[in-house]
């Protein structure tokens, strides 16, 4: 079965533009986002990597590390980083995994187990399933999986929004409603009884139905 929410993120050793990485050690006690892309020197990916560089401070604020991945070799990553800085306005400021042996792509179910051969001879279309996002928590469990089509650039602001929601849930036993943005009202989690909720929220809550209990964001 494909990796899903709640699974332990497979650990791995990989070469990156910032040196060798053991994934779990690299995550440490914080959160992590690993995002993959089909091939280097492709237009959609170039915009994505540039945008991620520009919003890295937002991930830092959330104690979240970011790491990119493609099957291209390190020397391609370095050459492409120059293009990204020149065309997108922000130098790449996070590591890029050179998954030349497809180890990570296979571990995470992004490429078939029988994938082999020279990664520089593969077309972007052959790697079309490599536009994924995995958010991993401090417990090394997968918290979010996104798989995008190769022709659609990802909305990384949504990844930040989900991390905000996940971190709020982890600290406060609340859930977030549709289209929630930080500062909007939240939902008291179903695991909190009305008795417990009264202690936590002595001013009460908005309740259009007994199972919908809305409170200001803690
Ligand atoms: C791109 O990132 O632009 C791209 C990736 C795969 C196929 C085609 C384009």
Structure description:
- This protein is of the alpha+beta class and 218 residues long.
- Helix content is 31%, strand content 22%.
- The chain has seven helices and eleven strands.
- It has helices at 23-27, 43-54, 56-61, 74-88, 103-107, 156-172, 194-200; strands at residues 13-16, 19-22, 31-36, 64-70, 96-98, 132-136, 142-147, 174-175, 186-188, 206-209, 212-215.
- The protein has a five-stranded mixed β-sheet. Strands 8-9-11-10 form a four-stranded antiparallel β-sheet. Strands 1-2 form a two-stranded antiparallel ribbon.
- Helix 2 (43-54) packs across helix 4.
- The radius of gyration is 20 Å and the shape is elongated.
- It binds benzoic acid (BEZ).
Keywords:
single chain; 218 residues; alpha+beta; 4-stranded antiparallel β-sheet; 11 strands; 31% helix; binds benzoic acid
User: Low-confidence parts lasting 5 or more residues at pLDDT below 50?
Assistant: none
SSE pattern? EEHEHHEHEHEEHEEHEE
Shape: elongated
As a percent range, the share of strand residues is 15-25%
The total of beta strands comes to 11
Counting DSSP H or I runs of 4 or more residues, the number of helices is 7
- Biggest sheet record: 5 strands, mixed
Helix/strand-derived category reads: alpha+beta
Distance between termini? 37 Å
Q: Estimate percent helicity.
A: 25-40%
Bound ligands, each once: benzoic acid
The average pLDDT value, as a whole number, equals: 97
What is the CA-atom radius of gyration, in angstroms? 20 Å
Strand order of the largest sheet: 5-4-3-6-7
